[in-house]
Amino acid sequence: MAEHRPAVTRPALSLAAILWAVTGLSPLQAAAETAATGAAATTWDVKYWNPQAQDDDLILPMPCGGGMAFRPVRTPNGEGAIGDVPILLGQEGGDQPFLNGLRRSYVSGAFSDPAEKSVKGLFYMAKYELAQAQYDVVMADPCPDKDPRKRDFLPATGLSKLDFEAFAERYTLWLMQSAPATLPAAGTTGAYLRLPTEEEWEFTARGGLAVETPLFRAPLPPIPAGLSQNEFIASAGNDSAGGKVQVIGTLQPNPLGVHDMLGNVAEYVQSPFALVRHGRLHGQAGGIVKRGGDARTPLDRISSALRLEVPPYDILNGDVMRDDYTGARFVLAGLSIASRDQSDQIITALDALARADAALSTASSEAEVLDLLARLADSAPTDESAQYKLIADTIRSARAENNEQRDRSIRLILGSVVLSCDQTVQRYLNALAISALLPSYDAFEAEAKAAGDQAMLDEITQARAEADTKLADLRTLIDREIMDYATLVEGLAAEYSLDLLKQQAEAIQPATDARGSRRSACLLAAKSHVENRSKTGSIDLSTVDTDMRDIAMTEAN
């Protein structure tokens, strides 16, 4: 039976995609190039609309010389067309679990990472809440006589969710017609603006991959030592906003460089409200969701999990619901299926996800059962054929679910392998620091002998003995930790195929790289050790020891 594939219309190449293909300019570079040539250039004072500019901001022009800044939110994955990042939303121990209870979900961006050139690696979140000046220049006509001032950059409020969606539509159309090269490309299609999903919003509010996993689960994003939450969140306290909404960019950004996701004004999201029912959302779609709290919310009530249901219509006055403390920010989104080639890639990836790992002894048996069911379905009457296909789909779905859990476990173990390596490298760095002092003891000893200073000579002898003891203790710790590391590597290589382990190592590579060169070097070494173990059947501890010492030497230099 011929395989049926859905017909997908191939859209026209966006101007941004053509520019990238011809000139090699990334979307970020394309935006800068466009602004530099004066096309749809921004003339507003940047200190008002992007008061805390960063080098990797994505800047989009607006009508009347305006501008809007976006931040890249990375969602790297090692599964190609169907890859995404698993996240745990909500908060443990809340007094309203039906609002902010724990639930597992997933997030993924449509755009290639300019730094990594990945197939799919990020989405763009507006850096600030939509300001009144930005709303006005898109929705009003003609342009105002003067450029806006600081007071015009209070968040746009008193608007309905439909008003914000109308803004997103109108601004997208203006960009497509007036500055198309500034929009990043998603495959062969361009980007468009919309309100974020709850997953996109909370992932960004928590700090995404810019924070370690334990800190990601904290109620509030981490802040540098010596600073207070009042420097990041405009809340109800007298030592904070005291109920007064602040202009955009007044406070400090979260770890992703995004401002005011918590406090100041609450923010509408695209997703309809649903109750949380023990780890999942309830099936009834309700009203509108607003997230993050506002300048009237006490700080102890604000968290990344805070969500509330808002009725879309005000039944008392028979109008749409508007609120002076609720605004919005936008994401740049792209199509999930942008070409026929991508459709084929998705089918291939889904098929691969539902296959057993080749290292399993039952892998060939499962494949044989699925092949048999396919042959029976082809030759059976229609009713029976449907039953055989249902059985096969059930097997594939169960296998895909098991594989997802397996992949999460592998990534966690690989993370432990990297951490174990990192700890051992630190031991080596400590040992190098102590060893660097040993020649000094010889000089001090010679000086003490020449001066006939026995007390000084005794101190030097004791210090040398303590250094030798510390070096011996470090060597013992290093040997023990290398054995622990090797045990983890052995467990992975013994249970899973090399191809699968390589795939999962690639999945954690971007997050590992973001945590520094030492972690990156450890992951690279771990991939080499896993590969050698898979090929030879055993782990060479001396090679592991040498590799970790080499990483330490590189870091020390």
Describe this structure in words.
- The protein is α+β, with helices and mostly antiparallel strands.
- It folds into two domains: 61-167 and 196-333, paralog of FGE (formylglycine-generating enzyme), CATH 3.90.1580; 403-556, no CATH class.
- The protein has helices at 15-23, 27-36, 46-49, 97-100, 132-139, 161-178, 198-206, 213-216, 340-353, 363-379, 382-451, 454-495, 498-513, 517-536, 541-556; strands at 58-62, 66-74, 85-89, 103-107, 122-126, 185-186, 189-190, 192-194, 266-272, 276-277, 280-281, 288-291, 307-310, 313-314, 319-320, 326-327, 331-333.
- It has a five-stranded antiparallel β-sheet. Strands 13-12-9-16 form a four-stranded mixed β-sheet, with no helix packed on it. Strands 3-4 form a two-stranded antiparallel ribbon.
- The longest helix has 70 residues, at 382-451.
- The N and C termini lie far apart (63 Å).
- Residues 1-39 have low confidence and may be disordered.
Structural class: alpha+beta
Any guess at the CATH architecture of the largest domain? Answer: Alpha-Beta Complex
Low-confidence stretches: 1-39
Mean residue pLDDT = 85
Largest sheet: 5 strands, antiparallel
- Approximate strand percentage: 5-15%
Return Rg in Å: 29 Å
Strand order of the largest sheet: 1-2-5-17-8
In CATH, what is the class of the largest domain?
A: Alpha Beta
